[in-house]
Known about the structure:
Blueprint: H1 19-28, E1 31-34, H2 38-46, E2 50-53, H3 60-73, E3 76-77, H4 85-95, H5 108-126
Parallel strand pairs: 1-2, 2-3
Amino acid sequence: MSTSFAKFSNVHIKGFVTQQEMGMLYNLCDIAITRGGTTSLAEQKLFDIKQIIIPIPRTHDQYDNAQWYVDHHQDIMINQRDKGFDINIINALIKLRTFQKKPQKKEKQLLVAQAKDAIWKSIFSSIK
């Protein structure tokens, strides 16, 4: 898949990175191509990253997570099983090519605590 991104000079593909490297990458990047895990999506949003979300196909929760970010943050979701998967990623990158996050000073620990509270409330409200 990395050959699909060769024409984009500002796209950098990374394999596994440490937690410390991830924080530095979050600070540096404006757009992420990511899976739909709850924690990853929330962390990236803390850094105001625009997301192209590709949920793992065999999980329902990742699709639900991705749809929430599409609905609330105008992020982009791409189905990995679509026949036009590669072209859909390229089109999403073209659409977002001018996106730059605005520098903001956030109290990230407070935002993480608020997000955890919201998740717990959501979980417990659905168990009845």
